[in-house]
Amino acid sequence: MLETVVSSARERGEEAVVVTFWPHPRTVLQQDARDLRLLTSLEEKKALLSAAGIDRVAVIPFTRSFAAMTAQEYLSMLQADYGATLVVMGYDNRIGSDRLKAEDLMRLPVGPAMTIVDAVMPGPAASVMPGPDRASHAVSSTVIRKALAEGKVEEAAALLGYAYPLYGVVVAGNRLGRTIGFPTANMQLYEPLKLVPGNGVYAVEVEVLGRRFKGMCNIGTRPTVGGTVRTVETHILDFDEDIYGLPIRLHFARRIRDERKFPSLDALKAQLQQDALNCKK
Q1: What is the DSSP code string of 25-87?
Q2: What region does 29 belong to: left with phi over 0, alpha with psi -120 to 50, or beta?
């Protein structure tokens, strides 16, 4: 869709614009959205859109009154407020409180021109798939969320086109890792609704202090030491600097193993030594 927006704008000598909403519509329209998890924070979304060649990102505050707009009212707003001459939609997108599909919008008496982008299928070279079976096989946020929740970060990366990131600040932990030779950076996410991959140990690339390092990240409750709160802790390989209070970004490369309870700290340390070797590989 973004490629179509950018190429169409260049051909027409116009601006490539993405209109998005914040907060997420589910947090406004559903009474209980506690299970909502985002693949991108608003800032991450803006950066990705800019990297894709989008000239301008318009963020509209999402409210119940805004959600009450019909498709015709919404398209008229895009024309009046953003000068929209062409709207690019996905094959399964719906617009407005009347939830009109692209095919319906093309029959409206007034409004910008419409272009419909078909489903994209996973694979080394992403392909477009028309037809009735496309929704069950296509790349989608639902499929990506499921892969991440199951710890399948390589599969998620193949669908996203980039290694899944987490961004946050290093906060103080219990410093137990340092006592067994594996100090960790305990991360507090900047975006609380950001989806965290399933529990386990992962090989990650770490951005901190303006540099990139290799690391191993544990997501889970630390059952060996009686933990109950889910944390994101990263041991940065070949690194020994104080980074408390500094921003840190993780890029998930591969899942190494499940999180599990060990009979002793010595057994945990032995496993962490093997994990570090596996992460380096």
Answers
A1: HHHHH-S--TT--BSS-HHHHHHHHHHTT-SEEEEEEP-HHHHT--HHHHHHHHHHHH--SEE
A2: alpha
pLDDT at 107: 85
**Domain boundaries, given as residue ranges, for the chain:** 2-117, 119-160, 163-280
Q: How far apart are CA 208 and CA 257, in angstroms?
A: 25
Same fold: 2-117 with 163-280: no
Q: Give the distance, in angstroms, between the CA of residue 119 and the centroid of all CA atoms in the same chain.
A: 19
CATH fourth-level superfamily of 2-117? HUPs (3.40.50.620)
Q: Is the dihedral of CA 193, 198, 200, 204 positive or negative?
A: negative
Rounded mean pLDDT for each run of 10 residues along the chain, 281 residues in total = 96 96 90 86 95 97 96 94 94 92 84 89 60 65 94 95 97 76 93 96 97 97 88 94 95 96 93 94 91
Cβ-based burial of 119 (10 A; exposed 0-12, middle 13-18, buried ≥19): buried
163-280 CATH:
2.40.30.30
pTM of the full predicted structure?
0.88
d(CA 151, CA 252): 10
